[in-house]
Design a protein that fits this description.
Elements (H helix, E strand, L loop, with lengths): L1 E4 L9 H5 L5 E4 L2 E4 L15 H5 L6 E4 L13
Antiparallel strand pairs: 1-4, 2-3
InterPro entries: 4Fe4S_Fe-S-bd, 4Fe4S_Fe_S_CS
GO molecular function: 4 iron, 4 sulfur cluster binding; metal ion binding
Keywords: 4Fe-4S, Electron transport, Iron, Iron-sulfur, Metal-binding, Transport
Length: 77
């Protein structure tokens, strides 16, 4: 699964964009979005997704269940 940003809760602070190791977050129409094709849930980079760690509003960066869970190369997750 990838993460997604709840647009109605996003304050557009841009903290997440700079912290994403996959450059999966970008600004779109005044709010930030996560490209699910680039999001790896920070697996292999950090213990917790960095968008979740830095977002000042709880439950704004959440799992997007419409995408399959990310599989790290070699099967490590």
């Amino acid at each position: 699964m990838a993460y997604k940003i709840i647009a109605s809760q996003c304050t557009s602070c841009s903290a997440c964009e700079a912290e994403c190791p996959n450059v999966a977050i970008s600004e779109k129409n005044g709010t930030f979005v996560i490209n699910p094709k680039k999001c790896t849930e920070c697996i292999g980079h950090f213990d917790i997704p960095q968008c979740v760690a830095v977002c000042p509003v709880d439950n704004t960066c959440v799992i997007d269940n419409s995408f399959p869970r990310y599989q790290a190369p070699g099967g490590a997750a």
